[in-house]
Amino acid sequence: MREILILQEMRNVFPIMRYRSIGVEIYCVYNPSNKKWNAYIMSKQSKIEQNLKHLKYQLDREINNLTSLLRTLDVIDSKVYLLPEIKDADTHKDIKKISVSLVSDYKAFNLALQSFSTFEKGLGDSGKRAFRLPGYLVVNGSAIQKENLYENITRINKLKDDFKKQVQGYSKNSNKKYNLVHSLFNNLMTVQVYRHIPLVTENVEYINFSWTNKHITYKTSIQEILNLLDRHRKKTPKRSNSEDWNRIIDNEISIINELPKDTTLRFKRVSKPITRVDVVPYKKNKQIISNIPLILFQTEKPVVSNLQDYLSAQRRSFREDTTIYGIPVIKRLHLYKKHIKRVTNLK
């Protein structure tokens, strides 16, 4: 397997037979040291594991190259906004306030570089709340350095996409994907691996950091909900007992069974607060989700509107699209009947 991993970049690995019914492939590998071909049997599982290891190795290498390259450039400005860590016990608590701490200059620059390779969750941190470090770096250099920076980040983002494609293509079952990733990389947060590093090479005059909420919505069916409730029955929450929990599940199953068979259901809930940055002018005032620092390549500092504390009770505006319409079916699951807009005929 080691030869396969090493020789993949040399394109000396050729699948010569595939037995899809049992998930096995036979590979023919050329060994240049003795000028002979060797055959290796590799299961689908082993192949994906090797691909993920190799992609992670390449990704780490390219990020190290990015860090080295950024240290050779002129740093015009740098700021990051530290957000409080979410501990595992606080994963499901409603967020009323998020305090933001501004860090500037050299310390911010170093924190930004560290964030590009932060893929694992911290000790005691929530496994369902990814690490975030909004902010920006303004750097400058020669035309060759600018081109190298662009190509480096393009390779990094391509590797991130390839890693995601391997994981998502492994199985539709989320538990299987989770077990695959964490059998190879302990404490890895895949969402942190998937995030692209944002780079803007056009001149930017103004950037504005702010908070936003989005809806997470997807359709489901009555049968899928019944299957979900059966799985929930087997996992009694820590703050409940099996008798009470079974009573809750039985009641929810009864509610679902009473629905008309043609009922359209959907999960819909407001996401946790998201940080975003508005970049002006950049392709007509582009909005970018700001989970890791934005890199700007230019000579001048932009005017910056800093990220403020998030206060759920003092949101600056109320938008109609932040309202969840529809009839709640099971509030615990954020499950709704599909909302049918009523049309009033005007005469």
TrEMBL record:
The keyword Cytoplasm applies. GO terms for molecular function: DNA binding. Pfam families: Ter. One of its GO terms (cellular component) is cytoplasm. Keywords: Cytoplasm, DNA replication, DNA-binding. InterPro entries: DNA_replication_term_site-bd, Tus_dom1, Tus_sf. GO terms for biological process: DNA replication termination. The keyword Ribonucleoprotein does not apply. This is DNA replication terminus site-binding protein. It comes from Photobacterium carnosum.
